[in-house]
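Tip: read the tokens left to right.
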């Protein structure tokens, strides 16, 4: 058999990301076959519609089977993209915030590895029989920055990984993460979206979907009333101001050193930074798959295989 395939997965609270796929971190279980098999995982006698709804916040991602099931779907998507055999051996390259890395590393590795036993499932009616032979863990954010050579030439850089629920902060000094500077703030995009939705409901009596709000934040040409767009613009600016204040309060002086923003909320800083923020220099890594790509690259280097499988 050929050597194992390295697959990087970023297990986000809002979205799952691989090097080639992004989908919401939600799933809905059915005892019987649903009307469509698109994005349906069959495992353990049940059917799971992947990317449907939003699961409750899980600070401990090993607390239920949800993230394991989402991992199987992510593997199937990635194997399909690479046109790899459905009976492949897999090395998973995944990440954790540096704030909880030492505490959660062993449990998360065992949760995904499952003793290295073969796993059989079906995804979109295609049968898979894979074996996860190893799970390698890396710090989130740092793995993404390592893909950017220019950033590693800076003596000190602030990294802000703006995810669904948390904003994970760290400072990198001379290309090495400074563990004493790591912070995890519960100020992710979900907080911003919830506040915008609530303000629109209070002011206009309308119930907007997150997809509509996110499109407006990105500047897409969504057909929305001017009053709605105004609330979204105002609340997004308020959120960005709060986020920058929290970063300052965490001891990260973005006026004195470059700041790297990545994750699903990185685009917020590109469009909504207040004029008086006086950022030293802002690097936007708006490829939401960058952590997953970074995990693969680091894993590939460790195994002597370059960028990965």
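Filled-in amino acids:
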């Amino acid at each position: 058999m050929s050597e194992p395939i390295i697959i990087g997965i970023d297990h986000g609270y809002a979205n799952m990301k691989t090097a080639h796929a992004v989908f919401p971190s939600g799933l809905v279980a059915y005892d019987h076959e649903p009307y469509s098999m698109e994005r349906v995982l069959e495992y353990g006698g049940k059917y799971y519609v992947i990317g449907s709804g939003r699961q409750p916040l899980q600070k401990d991602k090993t607390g239920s089977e949800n993230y394991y099931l989402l991992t199987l779907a992510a593997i199937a998507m990635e194997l399909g993209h690479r046109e790899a055999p459905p009976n492949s051996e897999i090395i998973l390259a995944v990440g954790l915030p540096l704030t909880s890395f030492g505490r959660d590393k062993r449990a998360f590795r065992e949760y995904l590895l499952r003793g290295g036993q073969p796993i059989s499932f079906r995804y979109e009616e295609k049968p898979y029989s894979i074996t996860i032979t190893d799970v390698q863990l890396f710090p989130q954010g740092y793995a993404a920055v390592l893909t950017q050579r220019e950033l590693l030439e800076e003596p000190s850089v602030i990294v802000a990984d703006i995810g669904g629920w948390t904003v994970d902060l760290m400072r990198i000094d001379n290309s090495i993460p400074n563990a004493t500077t790591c912070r995890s703030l519960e100020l992710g995009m979900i907080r911003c979206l919830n506040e915008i939705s609530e303000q629109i409901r209070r002011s206009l009596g309308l119930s907007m979907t997150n997809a509509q709000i996110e499109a407006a934040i990105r500047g897409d040409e969504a057909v929305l009333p001017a009053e709605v767009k105004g609330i979204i613009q105002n609340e997004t600016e308020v959120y960005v101001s709060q986020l920058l204040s929290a970063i300052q309060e965490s001891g990260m002086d973005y006026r004195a050193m470059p700041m790297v923003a990545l994750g699903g909320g990185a685009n917020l800083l590109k469009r909504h930074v207040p004029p008086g923020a006086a950022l030293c220099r802002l690097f936007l890594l708006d490829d939401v798959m960058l952590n997953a790509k970074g995990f693969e690259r680091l894993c590939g280097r460790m195994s002597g295989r370059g960028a990965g499988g």
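The CA atoms of residues 300 and 308 lie 4 Å apart. The mean pLDDT is 91.
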